[in-house]
Amino acid sequence: EPQLSGDFATLMEWADKVRRLKVRTNAETPLDADTARKFGAEGIGLCRTEHMFFDPERIGAVRQMIMSETEGGRREALSRLLPFQRQDFVELFRIMAGLPVTIRLLDPPLHEFLPHSDAEIAEVAESLGADVVAMQRRAQELSEANPMLGHRGCRLGISFPEIYEMQARAIFEAAVAIAKETGKAPVPEIMIPLVATRRELEITKAQVDKVAQEVFGETGHRVEYLVGTMIELPRAALVADRIAEVGDFFSFGTNDLTQTTFGLSRDDAGKFLPLYVEKGILPKDPFVSIDPDGVGALVKIAKEKGRSVKPDLKLGICGEHGGDPFSIAFCEEAGLDYVSCSPYRVPVARLAAAQAALHGGGDRTA
Ligand code: PEP
Ligand code: MG
C-alpha cells in the first residue's frame, strides 16, 4: 500500500509550499491513478487510451474495428467497445474526484493491433463475415515499414473518425454520469496526439465538439471540457501559434519529440547512446533528461508562439522527462504549468519542482 508518512510526508509538505509547478501523473488504470493520488498527484496529465484496448476482452473488437473495410463494420465493433471505454473513464473520474484528467485519444502502434498469425486472421475474417484472403490483403495494406512514423495518432483519427467519436462519447457519457452521481462534474481535458498542423487539430476537435453536443442533447446535461494537443513533433512546435488558435492547452510529448528531433528511434536508442555519453558527444541520455538545445529549444519556441496567441495557454509535459529532476528544473525555467510523470515518480517530482523553484532552472550542459 503506497502511502507517504512521517518525516517524508512533512518534507513533501514543505516542498509543496515552495514549488510553483503542479505535478500530475501518467495513468490509465484505476490502480495507477489511486497510487499517484496517494503520492500527491494533482491530476492526470496523460491517460494513454491505447493501453486499455489490449485487454483480452477487447482486443477482438479492436482488431475487427481496424480490419473492417466498411464504416458500418467499424461502427459495429466500436459500439461493443463503448461500454468498456465509458467504464474506464467513470472509474478514473471517480478516483480523481474533480482533479484535472487529461485523456489522450487513441495513439496506437497500429502494427500491434493488426492480426499477425493465420489463426488471428481467420478469427477476424469469421467475425467480420469476410474471406480470409481479403483479410490477408487488408492486413498487408495496413502494415507499415515504420509504424512509429506512420499511421498513428491523429492521422488514424482522421482516417477513421468513428474511433475518436466513440472515445469522445465514452468521455462525455462518463463525465455526465459522474456529475449525476456526485453533483460535481469533472472537466475532461481531451488531448489529440501527434499533431503536426493546425488543420489536423481543427478536424479532430470538430469531431469531439460534435459528439459533446450530441451527448449533452441526449442526457440534458452539459459539462465543461477542454480540447488540446500534444506537441511531440518539431513542426508542431514551429507552428504552435497557429495550433494555439484552435487548442486549449499543449502537453509536450518529449518521448516522441526527442525521437523526431534527433531522428533517432526511441526503441533502439539504448543500443548506442551509452557510447555517446561515454565519449562526451552527449552529456546525458536525451530520452531521460531534456536536451536544452534541442527539444528544450523547441519547447521554448512552442511556449512563446503559443502564448503569443493565448497568454494563459496551459502548458505541461508528459514524456518520461516529466519525472526527471534535471528536466523538471528546465520546465520550471521555461515557465510550464505542470509536469506529469509515472505514479512512483510523483514524490521525486514534487521535491524536484520545489528545488527548481528555489534554485532556478537547469544548467546548460549540451
Ligand atoms: C511522448 O511521446 O512523449 C508521449 C508522452 O507519448 P507516448 O510516449 O505515448 O508516445
Ligand atoms: Mg508520443
TrEMBL record:
Cleavable signal peptide: none
Record key words, sorted: ATP-binding, Kinase, Magnesium, Metal-binding, Nucleotide-binding, Pyruvate, Transferase
PEP-utilising enzyme C-terminal domain location: 5-356
Organism superkingdom: Bacteria
Keyword ATP-binding tagged: yes
Family: Belongs to the PEP-utilizing enzyme family.
Protein name: Pyruvate, phosphate dikinase
Included stretch of the parent chain: 524 to 889 of 889
